[in-house]
Amino acid sequence: MVNAAGYYAARVAEWFAPHGRPPLPLLMAVMSHQYPLVEPIAEIAARTAEHGQKLPMIRDPDVSYHLRQEKTGLNLGPYERTCPSEWTAGDMPDDFSFHLWRDDLDRLEDYIADAMERMPPLATAGVINGPIPQTPDGLPLIGPMPGGGAGGLRRQRLHLRHRADRRRGQGVGRLDDKWRDRVGLPERGPLPRRRLWLLPHQRAREGRRGLRPRIRDAFPARVLARGGGAPVSPLHDRLLEQGAVMGSYGGGERATWFAKPGDDTGFDATQTGAQNGPWHTWGAEEVAAMQTACGVLDLSGFARFDLSGPDAATWLGGGSPGACRAWAA
Fold it and tell me: Which range marks the domain in which residue 124 is found?
């Protein structure tokens, strides 16, 4: 059974509870997503008929939107920084198909004004406002259903949140198809499907974080802001004492860089593509240290196993330099 129910996926997952172990809450939020649609434009219709192809897509990472041809009109897709989450109090209706929310033009003012300078016909656009599922990092949730496995349903699977299907959907579909045909993981590592630690109010907050940076300029130091209560390594407190600035990686917290007393670790200072962030000096020092001495890296996030059975500790101990003990889950 593959759960591909989009923004209803969390409710569908709850239906499996009477038949096995209750599933963990899915790490996704339902966001209010708006996009203006323009009626057919004669010039676009004529160009499409003449050249047999659509206009190229336009992306503006500064204002944060994409503009593409929809039939013979235009579709303006903003990546809103202020999009609200919906149905966070368990008030999702049983049926929302073919329904929309009222438009909220104040949220779209900057996007429409900028796009109209490039495409004046957008002045005649109508606005669509409907639900869209979102994960904290924008990655799909695919693979075995959390909460299945031992004591639960073994053939539950997730296939959710491709984000932009024209870029990723086909590859994700192929990967999951091959994954289902095999025991274990596919030949190429799957997109992460972890990140199952958030409470409902955190899922909404992290969902907004995942939507906002979708097409912002990327750079090596940019990471998702950490979410409180994420899994941490046994070295977490010691790393913080050394000035570690944490980021969110695969649902857990890991050190992104190490600040010195007086360094500005705020969002505006660190989340910049310029090469003058407070982490730049630290990065240079790390490179120099690795060239002349050595470094130590916390890799405990790669050393988590979910094992069961009377010989689980013995098996795990065979590949560990330290002693392993068994405990009751």
Answer: 29-134
